[in-house]
Amino acid sequence: MKTWKMLLCLLLLCGIICGCAVVGAEAQTAEEDEVEGEKGGEGTSSLPPSSDEQSTEGSVTLSPTYSEGLAFRSNGDGTCAVSGVGSCTSTCILIPPKSPAGDTVIEVLPYAFSGSIVGAIEIPTTVKVLSAASFSGCTRLRVLRVAAGNEHFSEYDGVLYSADGCTLLYCPQGRGSGELRLHTALRRIAAGAFANCTGLGTVVYQGSTAAWHGVIVGDDNDALYAAGFRFAT
Question: From CA 70, how far away is CA 96, in angstroms rounded?
């Protein structure tokens, strides 16, 4: 009888042990499944790209990067003039069509860039008042550009002209000794247009010798005559 009771106790103990083992295994499996589910969620889930990320896909049209730090003088009527380089340290200046205050830039004052290290300047479409004096003292200035659409000025071979190309208004003082081509429509050279252009090399006139004699050359353009001269025809 005692032997039978001992067998029953042993069987009961084995059942308890096996039951605990099964429950523990199931619990561990469930925990592992939960962890794997969390990991799987992290690996497969994806947030939609932000608008900034989406904007990087495809082409982008860039606006001109206008120079910052230039000094302006307001005219009090919604317009202004470039008065100096201000805090701008760039050697290539793109004058903005509007000042930081919102005034439309219509003029470049005399000596606005005098004594600066500027080597190239682009005039915006809004500017309608400037002269050779606007660039006086710009000993390093080599190139002038005019934005397409300006109704008052144009440029040819880095030199400033009237809009129709008939009048040469200003040749940058720092123009090098390379070849300078004159506009085919040239009829007049403004006084002082070549003042201090002592580094000129060869000037090429697109017309004939007879046509050159019809071009009106203003005073203070001795540097033009000191340069080598060549006729295209």
Answer: 9
